[in-house]
Amino acid sequence: MGIENFITFILTALLFVMTPGIDTFFVLNKSIDQGRKSGINATLGISTGVLTHSLFGALGLSFLIAKSAFAFTIIKYVGAVYLIYLGFLKLKTKNEFLSKSVIGKKKQESKSDFWAGFLTNTLNPKVALFFLAFFPQFIKPAQIHNPIPFIILGLTFAIIGIVWYLGLTLLASVFFEKIKNNPKLGLRLNKFSGFAFILMGLKIGLTKN
Q: What is the CA radius of gyration of the chain?
């Protein structure tokens, strides 16, 4: 299928996925803050974002974005503003953080975590640049313009991510039960998450092409 050193790709991709970053923090935050279901939805959203980047890369759109200072800047700032927006929502949380009504609302809104995860990943231009630099190293030179190998590698990367993030979700969701019984701890965690999202947004905003 135009791919070489596939086992090496899997092992290297696993190391990259396991390295803490925005996606890891997002899944952990959702799992601890809102429970297992939110973590799973966030995982699926992020993985769909990975597939979107893979498709864009296979079609050459990511390369065009990387070469276009205007397009790169627009995507970068939209992604940064979105993360900062999520951060301010966290900071606005009041003392009723884990009252029964708020918990019920959080569970009802867990489906939106899919789209939040999708946008967090898709609007991160660093992911597109990473794929453009990483994937071609495992594609045969004669097949470098064939979209199929790029898509297969992207699908493999997404599957690895799903397995890893689901494992994190199962572990982190245990803390959700503890936080329900300790509203003050939950509120502090929420404030910390808010500042972290804002810092990540600023980091993306300062990313250079």
A: 18
